[in-house]
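So, read this over?
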Amino acid sequence: MTLREFREEVWLVAHGLGTLDLEKGSAIAIDMPMNVRSVIIYLAIILAGFVVVSIADSFSAPEISTRLRISKAKAIFAQDYIMRGMKSLPLYSKVVEAKAPIVIVIPARGLELCIQIRDGDIAWHDFMSRVKSLRGLEFTASEQPIESFSNILFSSGTTGDPKAIPWTYLTPFKAAADGWCHMDIRKGDVVAWPTNLGWMMGPWLVYASLLNGASMALYSGSPLSSGFGKFVQDAKVTMLGVIPSIVRTWKSSNCTAGCNWSSVRCFASSGEASNVDEYLWLAGRANYRPIIEYCGGTEIGGGFVSGSLLQAQSLAAFSTPSVGCSLFILGSDGSPIPRDKPGIGELALGPIMFGASSTLLNADHYQVYFKGMPIWKGKVLRRHGDVFERTSNGYYRAHGRADDTMNLGGIKVSSIEIERICNAADDKILETAAIGVPLPGGGPEQLVIAVVVKNSTDENPDLNQLKNSFNAALQTKLNPLFKVSKVVILPDLPRTATNKVMRRVLRQQLSPKL
């Protein structure tokens, strides 16, 4: 699709939004796979002066409902189904179950819907028919102050409710700056990164490619298939973004064998801790092009630590703070260790970061990110929550979360969210603790559930049955992508003097046993 064709489609959808009679600044949600239509809708909402609410298409109805409630969304765009190979997974029905406001329903295939929709909901064909006479007519952008919200995204906290993080009109430039500075994205490039608009890397991909004059390559289907590998080849992708669990599957299945990835100038990796062996294998798919490690957060709008094409890269490590960011590793006394010294500890960030969030919709921003943090040169440092190591040769390595959240397949989730569901999964359970445990050789965290049973004399509960119960409950009520790797039975959970579960202690105890 050319830029002209793309722009005219965005204009047309923006005109269509005017027929919904919503106040400027209203929130409009998107719950769709990341495809051409969803990207067009995303940019049209912003062009017309509304606020996008990003919802991942993998979420259950309760999770969709929570995000619609917190954001006060007035409408939502959703597909009727999600196509996974030959399977059709219902999406519109989940949105209806979530008691969504007005839904504009897009067919996953063809032009016409094959389902009945609620009274008041609008089929995509009918929505677009309202403005067909305006095709080609430029839509005059709605001017907004720079601090106005453009997008509401969600990131799990430790309270069980997802944090609602607003992006402003400045945040897109943070994403674009990172792409230009660290991945060298430029005019003529073709950028691919399997993701979704419900996660920050979806909007990041839109801005990092288009604002830098590059093309976006969007694949309809699973990135774990040989079809995706051929798509990268045929689209002549120059910058390929991945998450480590995708690379692990490619390596084990060898599904990219025979693909010519010689057009790739660099890879980028985000979402989880990566593995040296797997990334050496990945580099070998494209004549050992560099892999830029990239770590950030939804609340930052991009990365805080990254690799760079201007520096020698070390596999599964970061070489520099991201442009405009400063990093501090806190020692055992809670103070930053000297920047020229190696060490490991909780990561803190300099408080001034281009494009980073300054407010939350449903929590106290200061309480979450600044309260109790050390002061450096008169400024309170910003909390992030990851444990980081600075090596003797100046590189950085990630060691997972320091707080009660974890990273599962690139999705940050609260332990409390998982425990709430697991506690109700079986009558024998007294309480559970959910922790993310890294594999010994590095790579994505594995979900381990520590269980205390009600009847302490039952020394041999069926661990496979518990594991299956947990997986069924989590995949139904939270996210179908989550999977329990191990269940362990404990007589009790370690707690602080104020009765808080010490998940960090459990993580240390169970890491060697996985």
The two ends are 47 Å apart (CA to CA).
